[in-house]
Amino acid sequence: MRKLQNTLYITRQGCYLHKERETLVVECERKKLIQLPVHAIANIFCFGNVLVSPYLLGFCGENQVNLAFYSEYGKFLGRLQGRQSGNVLLRRAQYRISAEAPLDIARNIIAAKIQSARRVLQRRQRNHGAHEDVTIAIRQLNASLKKLQSADHIDQVRGIEGDAAAQYFAVFRYLLTDKTRQQFDFNGRNRRPPRDPINAMLSLLYSIVGKEISGALQGVGLDPQVGFLHADRPGRDSLAQDILEEFRAWWIDRMVISMLNRGQFADKDFIYAASGAVELKDDSRKALFQALQMRKQEKIQHPYLEEEVEIGLLPHIQAQLLARHLRGDLACYPPFLMR
Amino acid sequence: MMDAIALSALRHYAFCPRQCALIHNEQLWAENFLTAQGRILHERVDSGVPETRKGIRYERGVAVSSQALGLIGKLDLLEVNTVSDALKPVEYKRGRKKADDSDSVQLCAQALCLEEMCGVKIDEGVIWYGQTRRRESVLLSQRLRDTTRAIIADVRTMLESGHTPAPVYGKHCKACSLIDACQPQEIANDHSQAYVAALFNIE
């Protein structure tokens, strides 16, 4: 299996990143902050006023290093795309199946998504005692799964997905302990901009992991923009969004919930704008990225490969499994669903 | 004109048809210890200006092609006899002599390119083995030429189909740098249908 490499999040304003022989140097005000071997880096995410030297841009382009730019507050701006990698025949298969027969892949991904949301809720019931609303939501998710199994049109899959997400987020607040809920409450998912701290944390992590998936898809030669569940929309990485569905509940939602329940974030970690928009402060964003980096290094047993892998490699593994299915090596696409 | 096939594809095909399709159609490449060793050997071989010693001119990294066979590639070394103008392709291998004739086929394909480009007849070539440090002369017999042409046709058929053959897991997979991308065992053991069916289980 491929080696898990580092992701760099550059959040300090005024940083200059450049390549010095085989190392990457991060400088600020002409002082070296860090120097790392370039070959150990898979992703570089720059926030705000961060400068990247042409040589480093070239290195990223040539070596499949995923380089993305965000505004200082985490809004995605753009991503460097290197030389088109991989097999044009694979991409043709992707386009053909996306246009003519997206149903099976989309249905498998949504089955994994609903199943995973359901397991997050069940886990809550086991650990903290049954809550009636949560029990009802689980039952509704069961019904969604049943309906999904016989869905025979992509729009039906999208509808079921929407319902299931609404049911899940309607009881999401009960994943928080009573004590946490006094400080942070959650009344449904909102974004662009997020209007409470939990939505702000979720949005930021979905975006980051989404960009990692884009990079991984490109790395195996797939086109991140052409999806199966998500329709084409200029500028949207629809395929990356498809794959992200598999990771939302199990990876990101649970990570946010457990950090909040452990009291790792408080009200003072957020900026509340007059418009109602909520953002993370610099240091808390850094803490969130650190937590994500730690989580990525944890090892799990991959449910399909039955092999021990780091969580950070999951985007790459799922991209590879999808490529293999599109290429005809695997009968079905096995989405990620933790047992 | 038909698309040119890289001479290296013949060697890859002899090693494993799937590897050949992964490299030449799917554009996959990964390096491991063995490929790095080969690359460094070739960097050394390919460098240097032509030189003449004892009536033989040595030209390195010579680009060749064949319109008739649709081949393109590079010779490690071409020895030109300054008296008779006879040409002799030399191929460098990092390993040792193998039981099959895959190395000879590659050499023969190089010779076929040279024959077409220079309008000459080439009787023999040389393979230099790094591990044993031995030069082996290879006679370019009619039988070897026929085998080579047949293999070129097979490779062309496979690459033009765009289809990547299923893996055959074996001892050679351990030496293959593409094992992570190919995952021969995972594909031979395709349990994706059962896995997907279980996604809908509500226990």
Polypeptide structure, described:
- The complex is a heterodimer of chains A (339) and B (203).
- With 339 residues, chain A is of the alpha/beta class.
- Chain A has 10 helices and 12 strands.
- In chain A, a hairpin with a 5-residue loop joins strand 9 (270-272) and strand 10 (278-280).
- Chain A binds chain B through residues 1-2, 85-87, 89-90, 108, 111-112, 115, 142, 145-146, 148-149, 221, 303-305, 320, 324-325, 327-335, 337, and chain B through 25-28, 162-164, 166, 180-181, 183, 186-187, 190, 192-193, 195-196, 199-200, 202.
Number of helical segments with 4 or more residues of chain B: 8
Structural class of chain B: alpha/beta
Major sheet of chain B? 7 strands, mixed
Low-confidence runs of at least 5 consecutive residues of chain A: none
Query: Strands across the major sheet of chain A, in which order?
Result: 1-5-7-8
Q: Radius of gyration of chain A in whole Å, from Cα?
A: 20 Å
Order of helices and strands of chain A: EEEEEEHEEHHHHHHHEEHEEH
Provide the fold topology.
The complex is a heterodimer of chains A (339) and B (203).
Chain A: E1 6-10, E2 15-20, E3 23-28, E4 31-37, E5 41-47, E6 50-52, H1 54-62, E7 66-70, E8 76-80, H2 88-100, H3 103-128, H4 132-149, H5 154-170, H6 178-183, H7 197-219, H8 238-261, E9 270-272, E10 278-280, H9 282-297, E11 299-301, E12 308-310, H10 314-326
Parallel strand pairs in A: 1-5, 2-6, 5-7
Antiparallel strand pairs in A: 2-3, 3-4, 7-8, 9-10, 11-12
Helix pairs in contact in A: 3-4, 3-5, 3-8, 4-5, 7-8, 7-10
Chain B: E1 5-6, H1 7-15, H2 17-24, H3 33-46, E2 51-53, E3 56-66, E4 71-81, E5 87-93, H4 102-118, E6 124-129, E7 134-139, H5 142-161, H6 179-182, H7 184-188, H8 192-198
Parallel strand pairs in B: 1-4, 5-6
Antiparallel strand pairs in B: 2-3, 3-4, 4-5, 6-7
Helix pairs in contact in B: 1-2, 1-4, 4-5
Short description:
Chain A is α/β, with parallel strands linked by helices and 339 residues long. Chain A has helices at 54-62, 88-100, 103-128, 132-149, 154-170, 178-183, 197-219, 238-261, 282-297, 314-326; strands at residues 6-10, 15-20, 23-28, 31-37, 41-47, 50-52, 66-70, 76-80, 270-272, 278-280, 299-301, 308-310.
